């Protein structure tokens, strides 16, 4: 499901992801589904404060309850900010960053995780997949691009100034991307989804290049192949056995990625399925070749 860059694929968190000391930083989380578990992994890692956002209050309340359980188990309290917001709304995103600024005056890590996929073809016209194939079948183009690409742009535009000010933190923005960013066919995922993720990958490279001098680092993350409220209805032969990653894997990878500065990876595509020890061993190769980024071969 993901481009092979390390020889050992990871399907669940390993001991390498364990943080030896509590993270004493502020974090921001957006979205639900995988984002729910990303938030929980930061809570388990011991971050001191967490802002969580979703379109629905019920999702936030459920997440806050899980965080409270982790607080009790860890024996430490976190400062938690819950904000109902929609990434399709400039006003909502501006209000979110304003509340984060007012409450803490800083942000260390931003996870832009909100995402959708094109509506299913009902009834399905193929035994391979119930998702639209080709540009003719996909009538959900505008919504998918607005959430997946414009939503990340809105969050990035709103939070990069605050990230730039937080000089004593990791100054990290991680956007949910996908292996679909590298696909030029729609046999598995629709064109609108693929293109939105390809654009997100380039957007993160632009953020890293344009704001790297301010200390900001940006990453496009493939969060694995996980059963979520969105993917659980994917059907067809193409999807058989694919959604098998541990739901905690993406969150553990995010904690590893953001627990310190990793300028050598900033601006690139990364996958939570990659072995982080092998990835670190390839550091010189990545820097020298400017790898993990889109390039035209001529």
From TrEMBL:
GO molecular function terms attached to this record: oxidoreductase activity, acting on NAD(P)H, oxygen as acceptor; oxidoreductase activity, acting on the CH-OH group of donors, NAD or NADP as acceptor
InterPro entries on file: NAD(P)-bd_dom_sf, SDR_fam
Gene3D superfamilies, A to Z: NAD(P)-binding Rossmann-like Domain
Pfam families: adh_short
Keyword terms of this UniProt record: Oxidoreductase
Superkingdom per UniProt: Eukaryota
Protein name, UniProt field: NAD(P)-binding protein
Source organism (scientific name): Karstenula rhodostoma CBS 690.94
Family: Belongs to the short-chain dehydrogenases/reductases (SDR) family.
